[in-house]
Amino acid sequence: MRDLPVSEVETSPADKATVRLLNDLALEAAGHKAAQMQVMRRALAKFDENTYGQCEECGNDIGFSRLQARPEARLCITCQTRAEKR
Q1: Which of 54, 60, 63, 64 is most exposed, with minimal Cβ within 10 Å?
Q2: What angle do CA 24, 29, 31 make, to 5 degrees?
Q3: Is the pTM of this model over 0.70?
Q4: Range of the structural domain that residue 51 is part of
């Protein structure tokens, strides 16, 4: 089991609920951070493959302004819009 950020001690049930909530939030944040790191590693790997800035769906270039806003973008705006409509 992971080390939890807040340890549960002998306290009232309300305090225990607060501790559980804080630990759940911390674990959720850690999971989110790990997922974002995976996305960034995938984007960085594209530099080695010489495919950074190319849409994974259609192969066209992803617009510069989109890459400035979302450097980890995998799809061009057209393909992203189409994917979101599905």
Answers
A1: 64
A2: 95
A3: no
A4: 13-85
